[in-house]
Amino acid sequence: MDSLLLILNSFKTVFSLLLSFWWVYLPILLFYIAYFSLLNYTSLKYRLSLEWVLLEVLIPKEVRKSPKAMEQVFAGLHGVYAIPVRWHQTVFKGKVPDWFSFEMVGRAGETHFYIRTFSKYRNLVESQIYAQYPTAEVIEAVDYINDTPHFLPDDKYDLWGGEMMLSKPDAYPIRTYPEFEEKSSSPEDVKRIDPMASLSELFSTLHPGEQIWIQILASPTGDGWIKKGQLEIDKIMGKIPSKKGDFLSDMVFSIDKAISSIGSDPEAIVKREEKKERVELSPGKHEILKAIEKSFDKLGYETGIRFLYIGPKDAFHQAHVAGVVGAFRQYSSQNLNSFKMNKYTLTFARGLFKASKLLTKKVAIFQSYKERKLYTMGFVRYALNTEELATIYHFPDVGVRSPLLPRVEAKKGEPPTGLPIM
């Protein structure tokens, strides 16, 4: 009884303090409410003003190019980046950096490649694709998402999905396409293992009504990710950034250092400081540093990845999810980086109210995929360079023999210039 009275008195004291000092916290609270309300309003208004187009790329019958060609496409699309979006543009206009959505879809056993972009960038996307894949076809497509119910899961269909994230800071690169190539005695004879083969084969096993959607959202970015990566290099090398203290602590530290150096050999002090800063690196760490610094040579994109498996409830094969996760495991490197599932978005739940929590997660990931939003609260974004992006999104080469991989049999030609019109 005494403890209950003590708790009630504590609540009474807190409540009285809140009433007494409302003039301190209430303006701050109202400011934050107004700020986030304005941010949500301007963001929604900006998104509704955007004009999008979904382009499907029909890949050539014989692609004899490595993913290096797709890397050139990503490098060309990076040209939409000019200057960073300023804070006042975000707050008062709702503006965010421009982004693309690169999508791989398996439906009815077929593999489809889509690029969703702003209408104003359509010509840029088409020109970059045709520059590297002259015999491909780029057509405007009806959004495949519209072929599904507006809300999933429902009585007929179930889904399973989530978001992919990196297991380490994004300064550490993933395994990229040059590591999937084996050079023989002849420099021109290159044996290439296409990581797209596993996804294409997985898509070809889908039954009617089953779909797998993979969405790679990418926004060209500046060199901020390189500056963050330099901090990771400093950590590996043992260069811990010094924390700035206040004037009093700095003065005390200087006096202590001066007293301890009395009677000591100045050269010995310098050597001791140099030895402290010098860290012996193992061969493995040397290789890590080389890989990180090499990745800085490429242009960067702020990236996020989602995927969904949709299927009839009476024939729902959750094993297909393992196939998608396994396809992303190909890019793993034990010393560097790898992809893993974001457990907070994974359509899995346990404990109390399991069914309710699971339904909430499924609805959330489906809506997030439909809206294709990159800059949204809670969505994990990370930097990938053009080589990494080209590794996980490129058109399968001629070695991928998936039976239901649509390819262009013949290229449509343009009429000759100067042709008389009747």
Automatic annotation (TrEMBL):
<keyword id="KW-0812">Transmembrane</keyword>
<feature type="domain" description="DUF8128">
    <location>
        <begin position="44"/>
        <end position="397"/>
    </location>
</feature>
<feature type="transmembrane region" description="Helical">
    <location>
        <begin position="20"/>
        <end position="39"/>
    </location>
</feature>
<dbReference type="Pfam" id="PF26449">
    <property type="entry name" value="DUF8128"/>
</dbReference>
<keyword id="KW-0472">Membrane</keyword>
<keyword id="KW-1133">Transmembrane helix</keyword>
<protein>
    <recommendedName>
        <fullName>DUF8128 domain-containing protein</fullName>
    </recommendedName>
</protein>
<dbReference type="InterPro" id="IPR058441">
    <property type="entry name" value="DUF8128"/>
</dbReference>
